[in-house]
Structure formats: C-alpha cells, structure tokens
Amino acid sequence: QVQLVESGGGLVQPGGSLRLSCAASGSIFSINAMGWYRQAPGKQRELVATISSRGITNDAASVKGRFTISRENAKNTVYLQMNGLKPEDTAVYYCYAQIRGMRGLLESDYWGQGTQVTVSS
Predict the structure, then answer these.
(1) CA nearest to 61, candidates 79, 73, 48, 72
(2) Which of 15, 38, 91, 110 is 20 to 30 A off residue 45, Cα-Cα?
(3) Residue 21 · residue 9 · CB < 8 Å
C-alpha cells in the first residue's frame, strides 16, 4: 500500500557530489518523519540523517557539514544532497519513512529498496 521509491545513487569520484531522492506514495494519511540510513559490507546499518514533518533535522557526526537533508512535504519526498564524498561513504543507502496510513491509527516504519553509492577513483 505504501511504497518508497529511491533514485540518484551511482559511482562518483572522491570529492564529488550526488543527490538522492525518495518519494513516498500510496495510502498515506500523514508522514511523521523521513530519513536516510546506510549499510556498508560487513557493517551494521547506521543513521545518516532524518527530518521531521516540521523540518527538524538530525545528522550523523560523520556527515555533518557535507550532507544536507531536505524535504518537500507536498510531494512526500525527501532528498539527501551529498557533497565532498569520501570512500568511506560507500554503502547502500536506504530511504526511511514513518507513515500513518489512511486506514491506520498508528505510524508504521517503511523502507526503500536501497540504492548503491560508490565513491572511488
């Protein structure tokens, strides 16, 4: 009923930039928060950044000053602008959303399919 569709991943050189997008669609009443997580091979999934419906952001220390999360509430879309990319940023990036459905009473967690970001020369 609810889908998160991601785009924007790819291969980039160190110091380069990428912009990830994630659009939520389906039977949605409201979205409490959206964000991005990432998982590198052999590592646990970790928080990158989140943004609430009121625009309050929370960024991981490792990306602060380089990554910027933003949203367009009318389009149920969240973005992640990634600048100054480093090899250690290489991971699968997953879109996250906490959503209340049209027929639901409580928020539920949803995840995108993941998009690969590779930073390499």
Answers:
(1) 48
(2) 15
(3) no
Q: Which residue has the tokens 């220390």?
A: 61
CB 20 within 8 A of CB 5: no
- Each residue of 35-73: pLDDT tens digit? 999 999 999 999 999 999 999 999 999 999 999 999 998
Polymer length in residues for the chain:
121
By DSSP bridging, strand 10-12 and strand 115-119 are parallel
Tens of pLDDT, residues 68-118: 999 998 899 999 999 999 999 999 999 999 999 988 778 899 999 999 999
3-state SS assignment for residue 88: helix
- The tokens describing 112, both together, are 């995108």
